[in-house]
């Protein structure tokens, strides 16, 4: 079925009417599968609004690992609309003050399992736009674990950030792991 082209307030109103931000997670999985079947694909803006409406509240309120249903819905949505998803969700997790351990684990899992290479690069560039913290080091490690080819300017920025912020991480095991991973995965470029 075709989704009628809706302007942004209409789409937000529809999401609110359907209570998508609070619908049961098994229903969310079915809704995401239905979205994938739509032709033509959603516009970038519509996908961004849906990512926000469907997932933002759920992800930011996680206090334990996400359910199997939520992970299935996230993976499903990311398979087609990972860029809008990253712009909304990853950005929100990075801005979230405090520990945000469950949110960080979720981003790591998505990086490791679901995101396309160009979106893995997008996540890394988003991380490098904010001050590096212990909370974000596992995300960098997950990106490096993918062993994707990074554009030279992004790799340069990563190395520069790690060098500049080294004094803040003198006792951090995660920081040492990230530096080791950079030197191992990108040995020829870093040298």
Automatic annotation (TrEMBL):
One of its GO terms (cellular component) is Fanconi anaemia nuclear complex. GO terms for biological process: interstrand cross-link repair. It holds the Pfam family FA_FANCE. Residues 9-190 form the Fanconi Anaemia group E protein C-terminal domain. It comes from the Eukaryota. This is FANCE protein.
């Amino acid at each position: 079925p075709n989704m009628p082209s809706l302007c942004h307030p209409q789409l937000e109103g529809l999401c609110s009417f359907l209570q998508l931000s609070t619908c049961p997670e098994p229903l969310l999985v079915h809704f995401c599968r239905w979205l994938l079947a739509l032709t033509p694909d959603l516009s970038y803006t519509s996908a961004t609004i849906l990512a926000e409406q469907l997932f933002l509240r759920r992800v930011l309120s996680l206090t334990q690992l996400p359910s199997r249903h939520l992970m299935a819905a996230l993976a499903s949505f990311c398979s087609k609309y990972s860029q809008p998803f990253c712009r909304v969700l990853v950005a929100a997790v990075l801005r979230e003050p405090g520990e945000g351990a469950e949110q960080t684990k979720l981003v790591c899992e998505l990086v490791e399992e679901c995101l396309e290479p160009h979106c893995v690069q997008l996540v890394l560039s988003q991380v490098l736009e904010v001050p590096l913290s212990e909370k974000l080091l596992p995300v960098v490690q997950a990106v490096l674990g993918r062993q994707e080819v990074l554009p030279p300017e992004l790799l340069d920025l990563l190395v520069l950030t790690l060098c500049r912020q080294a004094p803040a991480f003198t006792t951090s095991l995660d920081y040492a792991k990230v530096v080791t991973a950079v030197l191992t995965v990108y040995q020829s470029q870093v040298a």
